[in-house]
Amino acid sequence: MLLVCPACRHVDEAGLQLCTLDLHGAERVCAGCGVAFPVQDGICVIGRDPAALIAFAERPETLETVAVYQRSTRGPLQDWLRETVPSGALELGGGLGVRTDTVLLDQNLAMLRASRNGLRVCADLLDPPFAPESFEAVVLANVLDSVGDPVLAFQQAIALIAPGGVLIVSCAFAFRGEITSEDRWFTSEQLARGFGAVDAGCLHVASMGALEWPLQVTERLTHVHRCDALVFLKR
Ligand SMILES: C[S@@+](CC[C@H](N)C(=O)[O-])C[C@H]1O[C@@H](n2cnc3c(N)ncnc32)[C@H](O)[C@@H]1O
Ligand SMILES: [Zn+2]
């Protein structure tokens, strides 16, 4: 898996400049700026404060969230994702992952530790450590309403897809003000238009309608979200 340093990425007169993060012992070190990111259980922890990401993964409430997702692998949305997501896809905010042969990126290290994927990276999906157009398929499953800047998340996902590739999205529109300020909440119609990219001819969209996503909160309580499920083709 080719990882690039988010801190060094920039555009100059020669175009986009990227530096790789190369494995040296228990760290990935940037070939450009020399910054080192820890690797734990095969998972590179990339962020301004890797120690905070590691500490977050130890908190009881974080481990409880992981347990909820471990109990919640079945349901109409989960089944659709399993059928639709191809091998080799990048799952952004992927949690435990739809399947085991994808690349998983999540900021929750505990979730990544609990997954069985070989390729996992703990990082910010708003600043992903990958080269543009390096995946045939990218997945944003139940993520756009979990980030501070959903449109940026969508644009970053599109930028990572090679032309002709697909973006697989599901969204429950379960926004919370403490995560996404209200002026950034969006509608089903805005999402279906790819925030303008479908009208501009950059994306083609196929909508699967609404699918139920059961989340088993405890043994006796299940929350069911109704999610829009969409596939965008990048032209
Ligand atoms: C609602 S969960 C969905 C998990 C998984 N995609 C699924 O459908 O089961 C949202 C996930 O996005 C991750 N996430 C939220 N903001 C993120 C960010 N900025 N960078 C990386 N992951 C993020 C969370 O840690 C969480 O695992
Ligand atoms: Zn760097």
Describe the model.
This protein is α/β, with parallel strands linked by helices and 235 residues long. The protein has a single domain (40-234), classed as Vaccinia Virus protein VP39 (Rossmann fold, 3-Layer(aba) Sandwich), CATH 3.40.50.150. The protein contains 6 helices and 13 strands. It has an 11-stranded mixed β-sheet. A two-stranded antiparallel ribbon has the order 1-2. The radius of gyration is 18 Å and the shape is globular. The two termini are 25 Å apart. The mean pLDDT is 97. The structure holds S-adenosylmethionine and zinc ion.
CATH superfamily: Vaccinia Virus protein VP39
Whole-number tally of structural domains: 1
Ions, cofactors and other ligands present here are: S-adenosylmethionine, zinc ion
Stretches with pLDDT under 50, minimum 5 residues: none
Q: What integer value in Å does the Rg equal?
A: 18 Å
SS elements, strand count: 13
Structural class: alpha/beta
Enter the CATH topology name: Rossmann fold
Just give the CATH class.
Alpha Beta
**End-to-end gap:** 25 Å
Mean pLDDT across the residues is 97
Strand content: 25-35%
- H and E order: EEEEEEHHHEEHEEHEHEE
Q: Estimate percent helicity.
A: 10-25%
What strand line-up does the widest sheet have? 3-4-5-6-9-8-7-10-11-13-12
Biggest sheet layout: 11 strands, mixed
